[in-house]
Here is the input.
Amino acid sequence: MIYKNAKVNRKSLTEAENTLWNILRNRGFMELKFRRQHPVMSYIADFYCHELKLIIEVDGEYHFTPEQKIKDKIRTQELSAQSFHAVRFSNNEILFNLENSMIELTLLINRLKSFYSSPGGEGRVRL
Here is the structure.
């Protein structure tokens, strides 16, 4: 079922997701392969880079409700427990502050690349 939902989600990206996808697609950002609306565990990640176990989420308004904040926190903890690295941007950050969002993402990716290329680089990195 999750794979079917992911396929449906790929056809209906938000404006912010589409903006970010245009940068990430076809190894267009730091030569990394990203997948969009990709199943990870029991979740669907907006964008996922397998090489770095990096999940990028682009959050719309409903993510700022108290109930959804709790769900997102639990999701992030569960993913982190399995050595995934999640980063969240709001729609507004992508649409109106894209340059700073990409700088933040670049810094994170550089840290992850350094971590995974170092001896014994399996496991978690503090973000």
